[in-house]
Specification:
Layout: H1 3-35, H2 48-57, H3 61-78, H4 81-94, H5 99-113, H6 120-141, H7 146-160, H8 168-183, H9 190-193, H10 198-211, H11 215-225, H12 233-247, H13 253-270, E1 272-276, E2 281-285, H14 291-304, H15 309-329, H16 333-346, H17 357-371, H18 374-394, H19 397-417, H20 429-438, H21 449-457
Helix pairs in contact: 3-4, 4-5, 5-6, 5-7, 6-7, 7-12, 7-13, 11-12, 12-13, 13-14, 14-15, 15-16, 17-19, 18-19, 18-20, 18-21
Length: 469
């Protein structure tokens, strides 16, 4: 091919480029519509990099994003997370209004890249980066996309809230520490709603800048679903899922409502943070003060999801039965009786007619008693006794008394059922408790030396008195 012909073809290609680009743009617009990519982007207040790529690539921006997206899918399948993070970064710059790629980028940081590190601090850094990406960047360009709110809520609920990651205790403590920095201990945001001082105003601004938490929305969520302890991850899951329901497109809202539901259930079961200064760690207990609001949410769910009546009713019954059990073990007997009676009225037949409150609570562990051998039941009772002392040391008398009562009733139930076979009977409860106390301070006892010293310091005897009948 001679030089003149080559030059002519090159010039023709340059002149035809914009026309081909327009054709490609038309052909790809439908594909981007299916995937959720948009060819239009408002450049007002856009970061320099996004403004640059939008202007520089023009009609080819969508084509390039599609090519990168195909590569990203391949990397995802190959679990090449580090390269995928870099690639997804460019896709978000080319198509910042494509919500799915933001979510995939954040997921890779939170789940993919973080697990490549062994140090909890390094993992937490990547988890924070994923959360920050969605809060500060993705929602900036997609403020009404339910998908982004769902992912945010899920990260708090699953990655931080659950125990599937062996470093989950570190994540929970890091989150609690960060929240305490802004809200104090115990956390309070009342003074941030209408800051009366410069210090309060600065804290409110810093809280929003760091975590995108708006005190006004926190108050609304608290009133509707709480009271919530904002140091626990499930509270943040409720915050973002509820915000998505309020601000997002009203499509596929069922998944957001279920995340609110899951967050409430998590807060109920482990939404009360208990500082353990003796062993310098955090412990989590049930948040019993939110039972009324949680019950109302279940009632609302029945109306909002009539096609899911069976599942909602089943979950509601399980929640109410758990509420009775937890209230009882925390020595809130009158409240436990109230919900016990409500279950009987609203869901007849759920609780056997011959059960009163005491026998019902014991029945929640009676299956183990029925099937268990004496040593298994004894281990169960020893666990109740240990939890009794842990809560005595932490100053939680209500829960301590609840565990004491449960230990007594489980012991009595077993002795009654095996009264005709004396060789299977357990020793007296006081004897079991004395042996449990004798092992305190030893590895695996559940009571550290520091906690034992606290117990001994509050007792006039060498060993604290065990629960006994």
């Amino acid at each position: 091919m001679n030089r003149h012909l080559t030059t002519g073809l090159l010039i023709l290609g340059i002149l035809a480029g914009p026309l081909l680009g327009l054709r490609f743009q038309r052909d790809l617009s439908q594909a981007r519509g299916i995937l959720g990519l948009s060819g239009e982007l408002t450049l007002e207040k856009a970061p320099p990099m996004i403004a640059f790529t939008t202007i520089a690539f023009g009609g080819f921006r969508g084509l390039l994003a599609n090519i990168l997206w195909a590569r990203a899918i391949k990397l995802q399948d190959q679990e090449q997370y580090f390269e995928l993070v870099s690639l997804a970064h460019w896709i978000t710059k080319l198509q910042p209004d494509f919500s799915t790629v933001w979510c995939i980028q954040a997921w890779n940081m939170v789940y993919g890249v973080s697990k490549q590190f062994s140090a909890p601090a390094d993992r937490w850094s990547w988890i924070q980066s994923g959360l920050q990406l969605l809060r500060e960047e993705a929602l900036r360009y997609n403020p009404r996309e339910p998908e982004i709110y769902r992912e945010l809520a899920w990260f708090y609920l699953d990655k931080i809230g659950k125990q599937t990651d062996e470093a989950n205790a570190y994540y929970k403590e890091a989150l609690a520490t960060e929240i305490s920095h802004f809200l104090g201990r115990p956390p309070r945001y009342d003074d941030l709603l209408k800051p009366a001082t410069e210090e309060a105003s600065q804290r409110a601004q810093a809280l929003f800048k760091a975590l995108r938490l708006d005190p006004a929305w926190m108050a609304k969520v608290d009133e509707k679903y709480g009271p919530l302890d904002w140091r626990v991850p499930e509270s943040h899951a409720i915050y973002w899922a509820a915000l998505g329901l309020d601000r997002g497109h009203q499509v596929d809202t069922i998944r957001l409502r279920r995340l609110v539901w899951q967050g409430i259930d998590g807060c109920f079961r482990r939404g009360r943070l208990i500082a353990n200064p003796i062993d310098r760690k955090l412990e989590f207990g049930p948040n019993l003060d939110m039972i009324d609001n949680a019950h109302r949410v279940f009632e609302d769910m029945k109306k909002e999801e009539p096609e899911q009546q069976f599942a909602v009713v089943r979950a509601h019954k399980q929640f109410l039965l758990s509420a009775v059990y937890y209230l009882y073990t925390h020595n809130r007997i009158e409240q436990a009786a109230r919900w016990f009676n409500l279950v009987r009225t609203q869901y007849p037949g759920t609780i056997p007619a011959e059960y009163d409150l005491d026998s019902f609570v014991v029945s929640t562990v009676s299956e183990k008693v029925e099937r268990g051998k004496p040593d298994q039941v004894r281990a169960l009772i020893e666990g109740f006794i240990t939890r009794y002392y842990v809560n005595v040391a932490l100053g939680d008398d209500d829960q301590a008394n609840g565990y004491s009562r449960l230990a007594q009733q489980t012991h009595a139930l077993f002795q009654q059922r095996y009264a005709s076979t004396p060789h299977l009977l357990l020793p007296p409860l006081s004897e079991i408790a004395n042996r449990v106390v004798a092992g305190f301070g030893q590895p695996g006892s559940g009571i550290s030396e520091a906690m034992l010293r606290r117990l001994q310091g509050e007792s006039s005897s060498p060993n604290p008195s065990p629960p006994a009948r």
